[in-house]
Specification:
Layout lengths: L2 H11 L2 H9 L12 E4 L6 E5 L4 H4 L4 E6 L6 E7 L2 E6 L10 E2 L4 E2 L6 E2 L6 E3 L8 E7 L4 E5 L14 E5 L11 E5 L8 E5 L5 E5 L10 E3 L4 E3 L6 E3 L4 E3 L8 E7 L2 E5 L3
Parallel strand pairs: 1-3
Antiparallel strand pairs: 2-11, 3-4, 4-5, 5-10, 6-7, 7-8, 8-9, 10-11, 12-21, 13-14, 14-15, 15-20, 16-17, 17-18, 18-19, 20-21
This protein binds FE2/S2 (inorganic) cluster (2 copies).
Length: about 270
């Protein structure tokens, strides 16, 4: 490990939850560095374009870089795991938010040695139990350009248009039922949202990103709310915290209903 990278890692470990976790589990530091950091910008459509040959740490097979995208909360780990094979994942370990590195085969957390599959972000070695968020990317071997879509949506789920997501009852009939929920990632927004109808018939919609360390929450039907499996924070259907470590509510959207659809606004 180079002196500068050790200094960087030490600085990271000295703060926040990662620092606390490293203190609690000493002696685990492996010979892996967090991927070096590069600052980039996205275009108006939320696309980051990289000419791979300009990034020596990424150009070689087995290389990786961390992207800090201006204006975006989540930093990205870009790995080059095989000939013309790149993938883009969130760069913070879901165990205690250490920045991740790449050993050429697996994504590795320098803090307590969790490992993740570089292609889909799935956990391959604990203590982390929750996989990494994956971003859509395409690589053109002819031009050596890697394009990363930060706001890509889920196939079949309505896109956000001017911040509005319209869910027709013909496509989402369960949204008429009390105690139901729908989840999906709208194109143009790029993050998962939940739309719920509580037992009393009231509609609500929240962003799935946990406010603790940005894992995705899951529906928790038994408690009529949400749970984050990274560190077990829980939230009401309206996003209020019911159990920490999260202290801030989930981002909430406005929901209205027409005779034929549920309409979510403020999705931007
Ligand atoms: S922070 Fe503990 S394994 Fe990553
Ligand atoms: S990321 Fe820690 S509880 Fe959600």
């Amino acid at each position: 490990m180079s002196t500068s990278r050790r200094g960087f890692l030490k600085g990271i470990l000295g703060t926040g939850a990662a620092g606390a976790a490293a203190t609690a589990l000493p002696g685990c530091a492996p010979d892996i560095d967090p991927a070096p950091v590069t600052d980039v910008t996205a275009d108006d459509a939320g696309v980051v374009t990289l000419l791979v040959s300009r990034y020596p740490d990424l150009e070689r097979v087995g290389g990786a870089i961390t992207l800090r995208v201006a204006g975006e909360e989540t930093h990205l780990l870009v790995t080059h795991s095989g000939q013309d094979t790149f993938s883009v994942l969130s760069n913070l370990c879901t165990h205690a938010a250490c920045p991740l590195g790449f050993d050429g085969r697996e994504v590795v957390c320098p803090c307590h040695l969790s490992k993740f599959n570089p292609i889909d972000g799935a956990v391959t070695q604990r203590p982390a139990t929750v996989g990494l968020r994956k971003f859509v990317s395409t690589y053109n071997p002819g031009t050596q350009v890697l394009s990363i879509e930060l706001r890509a949506g889920q196939d079949g789920f309505p896109s956000a248009v001017n911040g509005e997501v319209r869910l027709p009852f013909t496509q989402f009939p369960t949204l008429r039922d009390n105690g139901s929920f729908v989840e999906g990632t709208p194109g143009g927004y790029g993050k998962k949202i939940f739309i719920t109808r509580g037992a009393d018939g009231a509609l609500s919609a929240v962003d799935a990103l946990c406010t603790h360390e940005a894992c995705e929450v899951s529906a928790n039907p038994s408690a009529a709310g949400f749970i984050c499996f990274c560190h077990n924070s829980t939230f009401t259907l309206q996003g209020a915290v019911t159990k920490g470590p999260a202290t801030l509510p989930l981002k909430k959207f406005t929901v209205t209903e027409t005779p034929d659809a549920v309409v979510v606004t403020g999705v931007r």
